[in-house]
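Much of our argument rests on the idea that a fold can be written as discrete symbols. The amino acid sequence and the backbone structure tokens for this protein are reproduced below:

___
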Amino acid sequence: MKRSTLIVFAAMALAFSVPAFAQRSHPNPGGPGGPPSGRGPGSDSNASGSHETASAAHTDMSHASPNDVLSHNTAIADKIKTLTGMDAQTACGSFKNLGQCVAAAHVAKNLNIPGGFDALKAKVTGSGAVSLGKAIKSLAPDADAKAETKKANQQASDDLKESTS
């Protein structure tokens, strides 16, 4: 009887801890841990935790949905159009976040990728998607994929910072 009670208790503890684990904040690039999005120092979040306040306080656009950011930020939308030659909403629609889109746009431009941004986008967002580095190796085998990925990520970060100031 004690063993079955212990097993039930352990199963319940595990079941209730999984949602809490899934909701923990992700580490920020500046160091481990950190406050959840929208709850950092200087945020005007109130006790009710309204969605509008939390999303307004969160300024890291590189991880936001591309459509959310592009609808409010014409500076970055114009930059993407310059890099890709297409409307920013169209260019970034299938990317998980805006940072990935801008980095891919820079890689396509920097390396003059055969097939351009569309070819690179298909590799990193399409069926059987691969990392940006693997896509670079596939489309531009002579390029230093690691260095080009790092360079493009830095360019994207700079673009996103410039567009918010």
Summary: Residues 30 and 60 are 12 Å apart (CA to CA).
